[in-house]
């Protein structure tokens, strides 16, 4: 009888281990899903401009439209200015 009880305990223990592993796997899959969502919707801080950077960009665009800019190629070749 003790031998039968031991076998039953072994089967019960194995079933509990499988159930525990399935729960862990389910939790891991849920965490992976959350992580993927966060990663897809996260803003890259390097793509954001500070207010100062926005001001500088707007000033540069305005100067470009007004023809007040010089091409880098001209600067490199020494052809900038009157």
Architecture blueprint of SSEs:
Blueprint: H1 2-41, H2 51-65, H3 72-76
Oligomer type: single chain
In helices, the fraction of residues equals over 70%
User: Which spans of ≥5 residues are poorly predicted at pLDDT below 50?
Assistant: none
Largest sheet, if any? Answer: none
Which of globular, elongated, flat, extended, rod-shaped describes the shape? Answer: rod-shaped
Report Rg.
33 Å
Describe the fold and architecture:
By secondary structure, this protein is an all-alpha fold. The protein folds into two domains: 42 residues; 35 residues, no CATH class. The chain is built from three helices and no strands. The longest helix is centred in the N-terminal third of the chain and has 40 residues. The radius of gyration is 33 Å and the shape is rod-shaped.
Q: What's the short version?
A:
The chain has three helices and no strands. With 82 residues, the chain is an all-alpha fold.
């Amino acid at each position: 009888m003790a031998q039968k009880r031991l076998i039953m305990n072994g089967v019960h223990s194995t079933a509990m281990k499988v159930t525990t592993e399935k729960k862990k796997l389910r939790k891991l899959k849920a965490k992976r899903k959350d992580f993927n969502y966060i990663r897809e919707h996260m803003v890259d801080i390097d793509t954001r401009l500070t207010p100062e950077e926005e001001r500088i960009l707007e000033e540069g665009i305005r100067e470009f439209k007004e023809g007040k800019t010089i091409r880098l190629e001209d600067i490199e070749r020494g052809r900038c200015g009157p």
